[in-house]
């Protein structure tokens, strides 16, 4: 498996897990106005690959790196809305969509909520940070690992 595929798989996994955690926290905190002291959050297994697709924001973030905070956030927000709408339509077609925003006055076909724009703006910038940080980690990790496992360092450890 080449480096690009490994990075994509790694980032897909990281974004999927991060998205799940964000959604659990978001839904738990959403229960606060109802005085739900349990702060029970929830998500769906379907959400893992949907959030994992945030890994595809990495090349977009490289294209936008010299753009302003606002332009980057609006771009990510738009891409997230598009991904949410398309994945929601696909899941709804198969009767397994875990969300239905029809109760909101700001919904589009029950699949996206326009009043969630600030949340997606921030989530996109958070994923950008996560992906850019992860893009640098493997190089540092691998060079440190190489120093630790070089024949010279192994000889020192063994003697």
> If you compute it from the alpha carbons, what radius of gyration comes out, rounded to the nearest whole angstrom?
20 Å
Approximate strand percentage: under 5%
Summarize the main sheet.
2 strands, antiparallel
Oligomeric composition of the shown chains:
single chain
| Number of helices, where a helix is a run of at least 4 consecutive DSSP H or I residues | 6
Strand order of the largest sheet: 1-2
Cα-to-Cα separation, first versus last residue:
36 Å
Q: List segments where confidence is low: pLDDT < 50 over at least 5 consecutive residues.
A: 153-158
Q: Shape from CA axes? A: globular
Structural class by helix and strand composition: mainly alpha
Could you tell me the mean pLDDT?
Answer: 87
What string, H for helix and E for strand, traces the elements in order? HHHHEEHH
Count of extended strands: 2
- Helical amount: 55-70%
Question: What can you tell me about this protein's structure?
Answer:
The chain has 159 residues and is mainly α. The protein is built from six helices and two strands. A two-stranded antiparallel ribbon has the order 1-2. Strand 1 (107-108) and strand 2 (112-113) form a beta hairpin. The model is unreliable at 153-158 (pLDDT under 50).
Layout of helices and strands, plus pairs?
Blueprint: H1 3-29, H2 47-52, H3 57-63, H4 69-93, E1 107-108, E2 112-113, H5 117-149, H6 151-158
Antiparallel strand pairs: 1-2
Helix pairs in contact: 4-5
């Amino acid at each position: 498996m080449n480096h690009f595929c490994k990075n994509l798989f790694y980032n897909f996994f990281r974004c999927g897990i991060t998205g799940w955690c964000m959604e659990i926290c978001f839904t738990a905190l959403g229960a606060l106005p109802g005085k739900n002291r349990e702060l029970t959050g929830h998500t769906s297994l379907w959400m893992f690959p949907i959030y994992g697709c945030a890994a595809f924001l990495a090349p977009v973030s490289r294209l936008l790196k010299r753009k302003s905070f606002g332009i980057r956030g609006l771009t990510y927000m738009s891409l997230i809305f598009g991904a949410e709408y398309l994945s929601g339509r696909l899941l709804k077609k198969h009767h397994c969509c875990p969300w239905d925003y029809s109760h909101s006055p700001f919904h589009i076909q029950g699949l996206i909520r326009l009043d969630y724009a600030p949340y997606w703006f921030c989530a996109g910038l958070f994923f950008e940070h996560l992906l850019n940080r992860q893009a640098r980690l493997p190089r540092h990790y691998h060079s440190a690992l190489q120093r630790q496992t070089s024949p010279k360092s192994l000889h020192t450890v063994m003697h």
